[in-house]
Structures are given as structure tokens and as C-alpha cells.
Q: What sequence folds into this?
């Protein structure tokens, strides 16, 4: 078995709460120009900054 002495602990990424889908209440994916739900297909487009 390998010896773990001298090795640092592995960092765990923290969960970031995102937008919630209004149709099915699952978490939506954050894309460059939109938010999309992979479960039901609902899409919200982001406002373009001018």
C-alpha cells in the first residue's frame, strides 16, 4: 500500500447554487448567452450588455 505521508489534502470544489428551472425545479446550466435546463429543455436567454 502506498504511503500518504507528505501529501497535501485534495481540495474539494464547493457547490455553487445556480438558477432553478421554473418548469421542473432542477438546476439550470449556465452558458455564455443563456441558461438551459437539461431535464425538460427550458431555455432563458441572458440580456446582452451594450
A:
Amino acid at each position: 500500500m502506498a504511503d500518504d505521508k507528505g501529501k497535501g489534502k485534495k481540495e474539494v470544489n464547493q457547490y455553487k447554487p445556480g438558477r432553478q428551472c421554473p418548469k421542473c425545479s432542477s438546476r439550470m446550466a449556465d452558458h455564455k448567452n443563456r441558461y438551459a435546463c437539461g431535464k425538460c429543455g427550458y431555455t432563458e436567454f441572458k440580456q446582452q450588455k451594450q
Observations:
- The chain has no helices and three strands.
- The mean pLDDT is 84.
